[in-house]
Amino acid sequence: MIRIGQGIDVHAFVNTGEIEQFVTLGGVKIPHTHSLLAHSDGDVVLHAFCDALLGALALGDIGQLFPDTDERFSGVDSRLLLKQVYDIVKSHGYSLVNADITVMAERPKLLPYREAMQESISQVIGCEKNQISVKATTTEKLGFTGRQEGITASCVVLIAKNS
After folding, report:
1. What is this structure's pTM?
2. Disulfide engineering: 146 pairs with which of 4, 51, 56, 141, CB 3.0-4.6 Å?
3. With left for phi above 0 and alpha for psi between -120 and 50, is residue 101 left, alpha or beta?
């Protein structure tokens, strides 16, 4: 049996006033002029991935598992959240076939970090790097992403029942 899930996440940019700011995407810290406003580390890539995995099994979303009202998750590394979500997937007898992730942002440019994101994600869940597709697009300066007010990520996953 196979199942498909979809996840989407959005976080706004914030200028923290720090000299060196960055965004964390796919578990990779990327230098940028702003950081992301979030209760956790704001990793939209991993949040969308978690939601896609949970959605594939009709288990809700990461907000139900890791609410932003719970201080235990304040500033948490989203790789830890992904690991816990993937452990749930495995406990239901499923494993990842592949994931297709799209990041929508005008900046930062993500091509130089794409392979590092694939590697980071594959290490967290213990899969091959070629099972994780990461790509980026702009929104041609349209909407909040076009105005560089934030970043959006979407993820589609295919999971299969282990034999």
Report:
1. 0.93
2. 141
3. beta
